[in-house]
Amino acid sequence: MLLLFLGPSNAQRYRNISLGSSLTPLGRNTSWLSPSGDFAFGFHPLPTNSSMFLLAIWFEKISSKTMVWYANGDNPVGAGSKVELTTDGRLSLKDSTESEVWNAGITNASYAAMLNTGNFMLVNSQGSPRWQSFQVPSDTILPSQVLDLGSHLSAHLMDDDYSSGRFTLQVQTDGNLVLYTVATPSGFQYDAYWASNTVGNGSQLVFNVSGIYFAQRDNSKVAITSSGVHSTQDFYQRATLDADGVFRHYIHPRNGLTVGVWSDGWTPVAFQPPDICQVTNSGAGSGACGFNSYCRFNENQHVDCECPPQYSFLDADRKYRGCKPDFAAQSCEADASETHELYEFTVMTNVDWPSSDYEQYGSIDEEQCREECLADCFCAVAIYDDGNCNKKRLPLSIGRTGSYGNKKVLIKVPKANQSESVPPCSIRQNKGKRTWILLGSLLLGASVFVLLTAILVVSYCTCSRRSRELQPASILSALSLQPFTYNELKEASDGFREELGRGGSSVVYKGFLQDEARTCVAIKKLDKVFPETQKEFMNEVETIAKTYHKNLVRLLGFCYEGAERLLVYEYMSKGSLMGFLFANERPEWNQRIPIALGIARGLQYLHEECFSQVIHCDIKPQNILLDDNFTTRISDFGLAKLLRTDQTRTKTDIRGTKGYVAPEWFRNTGITSKVDVYSFGVVLLEIICCRRNVRPEAQNEEESILAYWVNDCFRDGRLDLVVEGDDQAISDMRRVERFVKVALWCIQEDPSLRPTMQKVTQMLDGSTAVPGPPDPSSYISSIQ
C-alpha cells in the first residue's frame, strides 16, 4: 500500500520542499504542511515547557496537535535552533550553539515532502524515497503505514515527557509481534509481556481501513485491533504505544462527530494487551508500575499506580518511579519484645507482588505467619493463603490488583504510637503533632517545676559530671548501634593486619565479626584524636546512623574507648570507583550509567530528602564504593557538616581533595551543598571518559585537564572523541551528550548556575530536558 503514494500519479499530491529550506521554532517558518493541511512537520513545543521543542510530525487540524513522530525526545532544543534541508541533501537539526542534535542519516536528497498520509519523505532525483518517517517510527503508526520485520515502536516516558520510555513493541525477525518492558535509563530489555504468537509466519504489521493486523507469509491475517465501522473518511486514526505500555488504536472525529471522548478528542477503540497489570510477569524489573507499588487497570482502560498503606510515591508527579516506606526499616538487632512493641500488620486483599517471595512456609496458621514475618527483619510483607505463608522483602516488584481468593496481604508497618521512633532522614515529622506534644509537655512541666528545681540544685555537680561521662553511651542508646571494645575490633581485624585504604586522619582495615555469619566489615580507625577530630567523630556517628539509603554505605557500630575512636561499616566487596574506572580494562558503558545515577541519587538524598541537610564535602572516586552487585555506595562522612534545617550556608576551613574542590572553597564566601554538585560534575566526567580529571603527561594544558578537554570537544561537536574506542557508548551518543551537558552544568564556576542534585538526577535519568550549558568561564581555581 505504501507504494501507491510513491508513483508518478501522486507526484503532485504534495508540495516539494527544496534544498536550502529551513525551519525555526519561532517566527514565520515553524512547520511544513501536507497539501490537505492534516499534518505538519516542524518544531512542536513540549507540553510542559513551551520554550523547548521537538522536531516532530503532528495532526495540524485538531486542537490537541497530537504528535505522531518525533526525532529528539531525549534532547529537546530551545529557541535559536534550526532544522535544514541542506544543499547537499541532508536533513539536519541543530541547537542554538550550532551543534547537531539529530540528522536523517542520508545525503544527496533532491527535495523533501510532507504527505497527506502523515509520512515525511526525502526523495532523490529519480523520485524514489531515500528516507521516510514511516520507516523509522517513534511511538505511533498511521493508516497506510507498514512495519516490516525488525521494526519497532518505543513508548515515551510519560504522557507529557517524550524522553525514552519503559516499553517497546517489536516486529521481530522470527515473525512475532512482541511487547517488552525496558529498564530506564539503561535500556535493558526485560521479558515479553504480550505477543501475537505468529513465530515463523509473520511478515509485516499493517494498518489500513480494516484496522491493524499482522500479515503472514501464507496471505492469512492475525488481527491485532479492529477499527470496526470507523472509516478514515470520518475519523482521524492512529495506533500508539502509550507511556503505560498499552498499544492502543485511537480515533478522532474529523467533522465534529461525537463517539465518546477519552482525552483531547481521542477515543480508544481497541488495545493490547487487555490488562497490562496482569500480564507483566517478568522475573526482573518493576512491572507496569514502579517498585513497591501495585498496578490497577481502571474502568477507563488506563493504568493507575498505587502505594500500600504507610508508603508514598518517590515522586507523586512520576509515579512510575515507585513507592518508599514512610518509616524506618526494622532493626535486625532488636529482640522479639521490642519488635512486637514497634510493628504491626495492615491487612489488604486482592493485591499481590508475585515475584518478590524469598521464603515459604506450609501448614501454618495466620498467627504463625504473622510471627514469622515479624521476627524477620527482612520481611516487609507476608501473604497468607489457606495454610501457606510467603514472605516478601523490599523492593516489592510487579504488583497488581485482582481476585486472589482467600489471600491475605499482611503489610508490616510501625504501630501508631511509635512515630517518634522514625529517624529524621526517613520521614519529616508532623509539625502540628509536635506542637501539641510540646504544649502538653509544657503544662506538665509547669506542674512539677518546683520539685524538679529542688532536685536539680541538690544533684547539679554529680549529674553534670555523670552526664559527661555517659555521653557516648547515651548516643549509643539513641542510635541503636552495636558497641565494640577496642580489643574486639583488634581481634576482628587480626591485629589491624589487612589495610583497605587510608586518608589524612584515618586508616581502614578489613575485619570479620565474631558472629555466626562471620560478617565481613570495614573498620575505620582514626589515628589522630585531637578535640576537633573527636567532635567530627561524634558528628559522623550521629549523622550516618540517621541516614539510610541504598546508595549510602551503612554504619554498623563504633568503638569509643579511651583515646580510641573507630567506626565499623558494612564491607564493599568490589572496592572503590577509582579502582573500577581506572583499571587496565575500561568498564562497560552500561555498567557506568547506573553508577553515575546512584551517586546522584545518594547525594540528592543527603541534600534534599533528609530532615537535616548533609554536605559531604569530599566527593571523589575513592569515596564511592561498590557492593557485590556494583550498586553505588557513597562513603566517608568524616568531613560532612550537619546543618540545621534553617541553615543554608556555613563557613569553614577548606575541605575536599585537589581536582574535585569547588572554586568557592578558595574565596571568602559561604559554602553550600553546591560544592558537592561541583565535585559530582568532575566525577561524572571521569565516569564518562574513564580517565582521571588531571593528566599531567598530556601534551598541552587543555588535554591535561579533563574538564577543559571535554568542554572543548562539546563546543566543537566532537563528543565522539570523549568516548573514542568505547563501542557501547558510541552507540548511545544521545545519552553521552546528555551526561556531558549535565556535567558541564555541575562544574559552572558560579554556584548559583549549578543545578540541585534533584535536578541533576532528573536530567540524568531523562525525565527532564537538559538545556545547552554555558561555557564554564574558569576551572583553574578549583584545580590549582
Descriptive account of the structure:
- There is one protein chain.
- This protein is α+β, with helices and mostly antiparallel strands and 784 residues long.
- The strands form 12 sheets. Strands 37-41-42-40-39-38 form a 6-stranded mixed sheet, with helices on both faces.
- The protein folds into 5 domains: 1-136, Agglutinin, subunit A, CATH 2.90.10.10; 150-274, Orthogonal Prism (Agglutinin, subunit A), CATH 2.90.10; 299-422, Hepatocyte Growth Factor, CATH 3.50.4; 456-570, Phosphorylase Kinase, domain 1; 577-783, Transferase(Phosphotransferase) domain 1 (Transferase(Phosphotransferase), domain 1, Orthogonal Bundle).
- Helices cover 22% and strands 28% of the residues.
- The model is unreliable at 1-13, 258-262, 418-439, 454-474, 638-656 and 777-784 (pLDDT under 50).
- Helix 10 runs antiparallel to helix 11 (674-689), helix 10 packs antiparallel against helix 16 (757-764) and helix 13 crosses helix 15 (733-746).
Topology:
Layout: E1 16-18, E2 22-23, E3 31-33, E4 39-46, E5 49-59, E6 67-70, E7 77-78, E8 82-85, E9 91-94, E10 100-103, E11 111-114, E12 120-123, E13 129-132, E14 140-141, E15 146-148, E16 152-158, E17 161-171, E18 177-182, E19 189-195, E20 202-208, E21 211-216, E22 221-226, E23 235-241, E24 247-253, E25 267-272, H1 276-279, E26 294-297, E27 303-306, E28 311-313, E29 323-325, H2 336-342, E30 343-348, E31 351-352, E32 357-361, H3 366-374, E33 381-385, E34 388-392, E35 399-401, E36 408-414, H4 431-447, H5 449-469, H6 471-479, E37 482-483, H7 486-492, E38 499-502, E39 506-512, E40 520-526, H8 531-545, E41 555-561, E42 564-570, H9 577-581, H10 589-609, E43 614-615, E44 624-626, E45 632-634, E46 641-642, H11 674-689, H12 701-704, H13 706-715, H14 727-730, H15 733-746, H16 757-764, H17 780-783
Parallel strand pairs: 26-35, 37-41
Antiparallel strand pairs: 1-11, 2-8, 3-4, 4-5, 5-6, 5-7, 8-9, 9-10, 11-12, 12-13, 14-23, 15-20, 16-17, 17-18, 18-19, 20-21, 21-22, 23-24, 24-25, 26-27, 28-29, 30-36, 31-35, 32-34, 33-34, 33-36, 38-39, 39-40, 40-42, 41-42, 43-46, 44-45
Helix pairs in contact: 10-11, 10-16, 11-15, 13-15
